[in-house]
Design brief:
This protein is α+β, with helices and mostly antiparallel strands and 414 residues long. It is built from 10 helices and 17 strands. Strand 4 and strand 5 form a beta hairpin.
Amino acid sequence: MAREFRLPDIGEGLTEAEIVRWLIAEGDPVAADQPIVEVETDKAVVEIPSPYGGIVVRHGGAEGETIEVGAVLVVVGSQEEAVGAEPAIAVSEAAPIVGTLIEEAEVIESVPEPVTPVTTSVKALPVVRKLARDAGLDLETVTGTGTGGRITREDVEAVISTTASPSVREAARPETESAMPTVATSTSQDERRPMSRLRRTIAANMSKSWAEIPHVTTFDDVDATRLLEVRIALSERHEVKIPIEALLVRAVLPALSAFPEFNATVDGDDLLVHGSHDIGIAVDTPDGLLVAVIRDADTKGVLELATEVARLGEGARERTLSPDELTGQTFTVSNIGAVGGGHGTPIVPPGTTAILSIGRAKSKPIVYDGDLVIAPVMPLSLSYDHRVIDGGMGRRFMAMLMENLEEPALFLAG
């Protein structure tokens, strides 16, 4: 008999999700635990498996449609029900409940005639599909270089640049790269652009932080000579790229242990000091800023941290990380130097008390014992919650961090 599977809560406080792509068409068979649909939550794009096998009788929404947690996601039944025969319906006396990935959901009372959509095995995010569609490009002809064969924006742009006509290339070019605008005329009109789900989530989090947390930001510069030398030496010895974030996380951990207020959460009138050090790494993605989380960072060495930073960074850019990998950080680091930044005023993420950003190291004159030398100078910006952390503690935290960064042996020995 036909059974309906309702959208489960697959993340912390999830209320709705957007259907990105159906993996099984209406009328096609599906096995238990086989991925049936790809949905986008506030931060992640995830595949949801069917909790049972059968024939897909009906989709609960079209691609691009947003449905709420608890709404019917898909209906699975027998072949007869899928082709429109009179279905065997079981009526439950219990009230409808929100389904999960493992429990059976409520059965439906009626099954409408199915309309079989056109499906594809191509893996690509909605923004990439739109780019290809605007350029008249068939994604089936594009080879994906992303995780699991996913087609990225760069893949599409590469094909467009080599095969499309000049007019198509111009149409597919991102707006920030388009030609210089002409002088506005009386026919010019404003354009209303709906923000993406991720951008709305970012906006809500930033507004919450700015409204609730009294921010203080302290700035400093550090001589990064030894830090960069150690990074090169480790990369050459182990034949693997060492992201600067891996060394930064390792350097900040002793300071977090010495000043636990920086690894905490304000909970009403209490301060919840976390026993674990789950360090968030800010990742600049085509869809917006995401924070991927390194769990129990204090238990990992530099090489393990390097592997995690690389994995999480790629997963964030490809939108393949799970909700658990995108939530729950206890402290955050942000490398704005990766995009050419220097000093900044980072906003403390909700649920934490501090965030550290580093800028790009640039050669500058420094005076040592009366001698003028040129050294790579790295900008540091530390924002913290002034309800919990006073200026004196903020400076002591920064001083310890600077000592570690200027002499990596201090944190590598730990």
